[in-house]
Each structure stands twice: as C-alpha cells, then as structure tokens.
Amino acid sequence: MSLLEGKRLYDHVQRFATAFGPRPAGGPNETAAREVLKDYLHQHGIQQTTNLPFSTTNTWGYGLIVPLILALIPQCIPHTNRYLRTAASLLSLQQSWLALNGQMRYQPLYRLYPQYPGGTLVARIPAAQTPKHTVVLVGHTDSNKHRSTFSPELKRYLRLGSTSISVAMLGNIIASLLDEPRSRLATTAYMLFSLVSLIADELGPYVEGANDNGSAMACVLGLGEQALATPLNSTEIWLAFTGSEEVSHDGLNVMLDHYGAQLQDAYWIDFEMVGKGSIHFVEQYHGLNYLVTCQPDADSLHLAQTVAAKHPELQVTGSKPLIYDEVATLRRRGFRGITLVGLDSDGFLGNWHQRTDTIENIEPHALERAAQFAWHMMKHLD
C-alpha cells in the first residue's frame, strides 16, 4: 500500500484522531492524540521531535461573549456617563475584532479565561543533501463544537450575522458618544440579542473532528512518512501538529515565537478539512466577517497554480472559500503560507462544526488527492 493511498490516510484519521473522540483545545483527548502521534513518529524513524507547551482556553466563545458583556453593562445601568459607555463599547469592538482575526490571545482578559495545557508537536525530516528549501506541513489537532450557526440552513449567513454585530457595536459607540437615546437603545438591543445567540451557540457538544481536522493530521503524517521513505534532495520537511487552532491559533503562534527566525523563508502548507469533497488551494481567505480577508503569498500561490497545471489528473483548483485559518496568522506575521482545503458542492467546508463530522463521512479519495498534490508541490520546489 502506498504511503499516500487514501485507505492508509483514512486509517490514520481513525487511529490518531477519532479514536480519541472530541478533542477540545488543551483537553486530555487532544494531549493523548499528540502523544500517540509522537510515539508513532519515533517508531517509524522520525526522531527529531519537539513538543512546545503553552496555556490555552478551549473555545473562541470567551473572546466574543465577554467583550459584549462588558459593553452592555454600562449601557444597561441608568445615568451612566456617556463617555464611559462610549469607552466600553469601543473597547468591546476592539476585543471582538481581535477574536475575529484569530488574535484572541492578545485580549487583555485572555489569561483570565479558563486555561488548559496545550501543545504543538514539531518533527523534522532532513533533506538527502544540503538543504536549500524548507517546507512546513501544518495540521491542527483540536476540534470545535457543534454549532447551530454552522448548520446547513444558517452557514450561508455567517458573514452577514457577524458583520451585523460589528456594525451594531460601531453604531453603539457613535450613539453613546452623541448621546442619542433611540439609536443607543436600538443598537444595545441588537447587541443583547447577539449575546444570547452567541451563548446559545456555545451549548453544543464538542465534535469528533474527523474532517476538522483529523484529515489534516493524517495527511501531514502520511507526507512525513513519504519524505522519510524517499527523501527530497535539497528540501527539509517540518511537520507541525498545532494545538488550539480553533481558539486563537495559539499553537502556531508559539511555534513561530520559537522557530520564527529559522523558518522565515520556509514554505508553509496548511491542511484544512481535506477529508471530504473536492480539493482546492485557497486563492483568497474570507473570514466570518466581510471585513476580514487575507491572501496567500505570491510564491506559494504560483507554486500551487503551477503544480495544478502540471497535474490535471488530481483535479485540484484554486478557490476563494469562507475560511480563515492559520495561514492568516502566518501572513500577518510575515511568513509564506497557503491552504489546501476540501469543499462540498455548495462551496462550504464539509460537516464544518457539525455532529456529522465523523469518520463515517470521510472520503479516502479526497485525502489522497490532497496529500498527492502537496507531495508534488514539494517535489516541484525541490
């Protein structure tokens, strides 16, 4: 069986992700999955591994809900000074913006949220000769919750709903500053409605995360095995099993803090939910807000486009989906980065934050296409 064959990668999803059940960031299941991954790497000859520990919370909900509460308190207390109301709303908007941009860790209150022991597992596979290039393969190990806002009926309204909250918060700032009671009442009411909706969205259980992101763990692992079996001549391969992506990209940030100078010129390939649907490389990233976007670097995009043209049999094309993953953090911090992603026929990620994200809904051929495409990217670079 080929190291990148779909059935083998499917088995990796089952063995290293879904066998542990839901994997909240910093939880015991995520830790156990990471330990089993490390043992497997050692057993199969990949000895250069490092675990980077860090502290993390376990849901993005804190970063969205707490700022809204802090903004609403002075709005709901009679005779509060308008400048205090304005300042609270302004701070709330800024803190929510950090969460929407994958920067929740920079909120002043972040360390006051419940904290758990997270980690990122890093492995290195040397080039056969003197290395001229470095490729970092990224797949996060944590899973998210079942969220009603991501249901098939509501997911198309995600950006509209999120943007409307930001607009309401901005309107509340203006109404508070100008002391316009009707506008302030209307925006406060909408913010209160948004708060209730966000709290309700947090009530679902954590999901198994076969596609999000056990599929990525499997591809990164399979490609590591492939690189060990047939080393690239002048390209060093790093495997990054990052923690806490679903919260604030903490695991990637810690890795960049630790290895950033060494990996400044590396090519980063991120895998997101490549276990279902058609496989694409992301040409433009659209976050959960109309104002949140980013793009891959020109070098990585050109590499992906070149490989797609050379290997039409893989049927991998560019796309501009609703996704805002760890590449956003890479680009913000000045690194290269591009994502391989799986999309359903409706253009959305398959079983995204839904109970249906189980091993039974993983498609082996999708895993194989994603892994093969990444391997051809690496060989072309080499």
Please outline what is shown here:
With about 375 residues, the protein is α/β, with parallel strands linked by helices.
Structure commentary:
The model has no long low-confidence stretch (mean pLDDT 96). 49% of the residues are buried. This protein folds into two domains: 6-58 and 115-146 and 206-381, Aminopeptidase (3-Layer(aba) Sandwich); 61-110 and 156-201. The strands form two sheets. An eight-stranded mixed β-sheet has the order 1-2-4-3-5-10-6-9, sandwiched between helices. The chain has a two-stranded antiparallel ribbon with strand order 7-8. It contains eleven helices and ten strands. The chain is α/β, with parallel strands linked by helices and 382 residues long. β7 and β8 form a beta hairpin. The longest helix is centred in the middle third of the chain and has 21 residues, at 158-178.
Give the beta-strand count. 10
Main beta sheet = 8 strands, mixed
Q: Could you tell me the mean pLDDT?
A: 96
Shape: elongated
Gap from first CA to last CA:
25 Å
Total individual domains: 2
List unreliable stretches of 5+ residues.
none
Q: Structural class, judged by helices and strands?
A: alpha/beta
What are the SSEs and their pairings?
Blueprint: H1 6-16, H2 28-43, E1 49-56, H3 61-76, H4 82-100, E2 116-125, E3 133-140, H5 158-178, H6 181-201, H7 210-229, E4 235-242, H8 250-259, E5 267-272, E6 278-282, E7 285-286, E8 293-294, H9 298-310, E9 317-319, H10 326-332, E10 338-343, H11 364-381
Parallel strand pairs: 3-4, 3-5, 5-10, 6-9
Antiparallel strand pairs: 1-2, 2-4, 6-10, 7-8
Helix pairs in contact: 1-7, 1-11, 3-4, 3-6, 4-5, 5-6, 7-11, 9-11
